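Quick one:
INPUT:
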């Protein structure tokens, strides 16, 4: 072990983020970050470390994972890291499947949350996004509402912190989303980081994001954009669903071990 590695820990406070692409940071493109993605969790970790150098950070989230995969593959590694703070968001990839038993799924979610609570860590949960204005996912809005009711009940039962993604109306503006229309963009992840810090009651020195103030596209421009989006993003997404391929195949966690080096 090098001297530099020896300085990276141990940590008095330990933030572990688990979940899917939302927590991995997909859409917040950053070639200098692992997996070419930064994301809200990295931004929160960087601010926590700036506030207090005793923080360490691990991010176990992997894009494309369904809820049972997140629970089965990430809960135990998270517990092994002896977290003092855990964030969990998973289930979005289940909600968009052709069929899903949400009641059964959320019983498993509750059991996973209970394992995290038993560590003594502060646990933060998230509601799902309101997809009323999302062309591809609008039909899943009712499922997300049911999912959210389960999450709210679980958060209340265990007295946990809750980030209410559903009511973050600023993120109904598509300028905060990536061009794939499925993941938050840089601006959206920045807004989410600031909201998580607010829920945690932590000092927030992250600058408000800037978004393009471009005029609304004309109808022909929107049609052209939709055609390009369908070819480059929708069709590959459908193909993965039909073939059982996940965007997270062969992807490793960004920060599997605790670190204070988050850029």
């Amino acid at each position: 072990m090098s001297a530099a590695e020896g300085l990276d820990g141990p940590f008095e406070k330990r933030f572990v983020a688990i979940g899917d692409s939302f927590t991995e940071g997909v859409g917040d493109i950053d070639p200098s970050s692992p997996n070419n993605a930064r994301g809200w969790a990295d931004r929160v970790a960087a601010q926590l470390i700036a506030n207090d150098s005793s923080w360490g950070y691990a991010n176990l989230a992997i894009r494309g994972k369904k809820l049972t995969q997140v629970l089965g593959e990430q809960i135990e590694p998270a517990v092994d890291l002896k977290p003092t703070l855990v964030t969990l968001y998973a289930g979005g990839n289940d909600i968009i499947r052709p069929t899903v038993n949400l009641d059964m799924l959320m019983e498993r979610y509750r059991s996973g949350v209970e394992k995290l609570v038993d560590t003594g860590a502060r646990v933060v949960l998230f509601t799902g996004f309101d997809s009323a204005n999302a062309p591809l996912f609008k039909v899943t809005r009712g499922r997300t509402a049911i999912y959210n009711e389960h999450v709210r009940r679980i958060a209340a039962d265990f007295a946990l912190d809750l980030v209410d993604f559903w009511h973050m109306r600023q993120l109904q503006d598509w300028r905060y989303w990536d061009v794939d229309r499925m993941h938050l963009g840089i601006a959206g992840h920045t807004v989410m980081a600031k909201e998580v810090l607010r829920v945690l009651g932590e000092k927030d020195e992250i600058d408000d994001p800037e978004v393009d103030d471009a005029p609304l596209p004309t109808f022909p421009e929107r049609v052209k954009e939709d055609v390009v989006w369908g070819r480059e993003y929708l069709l590959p997404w459908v193909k993965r669903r039909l073939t059982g391929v996940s965007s997270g195949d062969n992807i490793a966690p960004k920060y599997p071990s605790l670190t204070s080096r988050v850029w």
